[in-house]
Design brief:
By secondary structure, the chain is an alpha+beta fold. It is 25% helix and 26% strand. About 5% of the residues have low confidence.
Length: 316
């Protein structure tokens, strides 16, 4: 036998704590029994991160509603906004933004992409899984093209199970809320994605016919595929390794025809390598040849935008 020396105040505190536990325990049991059937609670640390991209803009409540739906299915889920200002209806731009973002997310991340000009039509709402293990929840309209080319898609399913949607009655114009967001929540909390609907043949997924720059003995031919955010730099469909085939080195002048108008721009590393207001060729942060003006808007200054044709002569 041994004796503990405790003050009357400490003994009273211990007895009070034991009394609270005794009173609270029945209520905790009742609370557990009263949870709705089918409710799944996953610790936030074990939830998959969601990357979210749309052309909704942020002027109204659409983005917030979609996030609330995701969080309702997977409480505490981390949602990273890729952008909500993709050019409306521009699937090709969406495919480019998605492919550019994917490498910076974990290999189990979930992506929700809603650029969906044919919402409510016969186009399919799908989930696709890449070889890396990432999931993509989006309309089957070509948004996956560049990811599929680079990372590979190993399986896909059409979302048809009403339990993976917001409810049996879905709208014909807001599948971002009613189908894609709840499906993403189910994936984020680790639900078996085979329950979302029937399997699809990966080879049958819709693909975009994205133009590729070509090089031959006369030089390179390509086109502008967009502008760089608010800065107006012209993004070209010319990977750095393709441009390298022409033989131009840093510091050299590069002759180019832009929408059939002749120019000559220096090939440099960064904007400050030329004077303010002067144009330049450079390799952008995504590894593509681009055209810019130091602290100016190239697109506006030269009156060109996505779709502009370029031709660069081979170096002699």
């Amino acid at each position: 036998m041994f004796h503990l020396k405790c003050s009357p105040r400490r003994i009273a505190g211990v007895l009070f704590f034991a009394l609270l536990v005794g009173i609270a325990s029945p209520f905790l049991v009742v609370a557990q029994l009263s949870k709705p059937k089918g409710t799944t609670h996953v610790a936030a640390a074990h939830l998959r991160t969601i990357g979210f991209m749309t052309d909704f803009d942020v002027k109204d409540d659409a983005v917030g509603i979609c996030k609330a739906v995701m969080d309702g299915v997977a409480p505490g889920v981390r949602i990273i906004d890729i952008t909500h200002q993709a050019t409306p209806y521009d699937i090709e731009e969406g495919a480019r933004f998605l492919a550019g973002s994917v490498p910076y997310f974990s290999n189990d991340a979930v992506f929700v992409v809603v650029i969906d000009p044919t919402v409510g039509s016969t186009r399919k709402a799908i989930i696709a899984k890449s070889k890396k293990g990432q999931f993509f929840v989006l309309p089957d309209n070509g948004l996956l093209t560049l990811v599929q080319d680079r990372d590979g898609i190993v399986a896909a399913r059409e979302i048809t199970n009403a339990e993976w949607m917001i409810g049996a009655k879905t709208s014909s114009t807001f599948h971002g809320r009613d189908i894609f967001s709840p499906a993403a929540g189910h994936l984020a909390r680790g639900d078996d994605w085979t329950g979302a609907g029937p399997a699809l043949d990966v080879a049958s997924l819709v693909r975009l016919a994205i133009p590729v720059a070509t090089v031959d003995s006369s030089g390179l031919r390509g086109q502008a595929i967009g502008t760089d955010g608010p800065f107006g730099n012209l993004v070209l469909n010319v990977p750095a390794e393709t441009f390298a085939k022409l033989g131009y080195k840093i510091g050299e002048m590069v002759p180019v025809r832009l929408d059939d108008k002749p120019y000559e721009f220096p090939f440099v590393k960064t904007f400050s390598d030329v004077a303010v207001g002067k144009p330049l060729f450079y390799i952008d942060s995504r590894g593509r040849l681009s055209l810019g003006i130091n602290q100016r808007d190239f697109s506006k200054s030269y009156g060109v935008a996505a779709g502009a044709q370029i031709a660069i002569s081979a170096k002699h």
